[in-house]
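Input chain follows. Return structure tokens only.
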Amino acid sequence: MPVPAYNTFNEVFDSLDSDDYDAATPFKIELIKPDDFTIKNWPVQPGDYRVLNATKSIALAVLKAVDLDNPALASLHSKIAIIGSITTENLGVEHIVKNLISNPFLRHLVLWGEDVEGHLPGDALISLLGNGVDKKKRIIGARGARPALKNLTQGETRHLRRQIQVFDMIGRKDISELNNRLELLNKQATQPYEAGLKVDLVEIKKAKPSKRLKLDPAGYFVIIVMRGKEYPLLVEHYSNDGRLMNMVEGLDSASICATLVEKNLISQLDHAAYLGRELAKAELSLISDSKYTQDQAQGELC
């Protein structure tokens, strides 16, 4: 392992023992050398983005409500690795940082557009790259409402500040000006960073269907869609021996769920999850003017 990459790996571990680290030990830490980088495994975090040329050196983050599929932005695609939007100063920043540092080919971040009022994610990224975070993991100097990065290690923050150079075009709206900046950056002979860094705080668990069905002692529900009625969603609540106990009607699934919980008509989490899913389907059937059929709960009755 190259010395700089080895140092990066050790710094992540060192940050776990520092006083300002308040999260559990990461599940996995991985260094990604340029030769080992694969497009199918990147980006590592979900988000609103378009991957274009993953081994280019430039990431473009557009602020506020910008349509990433806007034809006016299409002329920029050949110049950048990825284009994405960012709207929050905490989780949004965490996601973009993890995606940036896990690709060793990325060396430049361009922030463009009007910053999001209140949150100021663009300002948060500028401050993070310039100042880092304090012992409470707040971005030093950031002016947004809650610029705290609870899900980044100090090692990731240091890696970001070494790997990525930021270009502040916050408040700019001229696409031709943005294009000129990207062209200048593309003319530079930018080398990949010695290694990208991927830190998984938790293990991703694969979802599996339920194998066992345990009846809720509080009873079961029948969902009925009544088109044309003032309150088109109706839920009948029965005891497990078939006696009608309650009826709740409403305009939408959220209010009905809230009422059922408030009235203590559900006593199991799996039952609550099932009911929420079915009520959402019933509401969608009203919106789409399609037939609603209530599904059976997963698993064999035990």
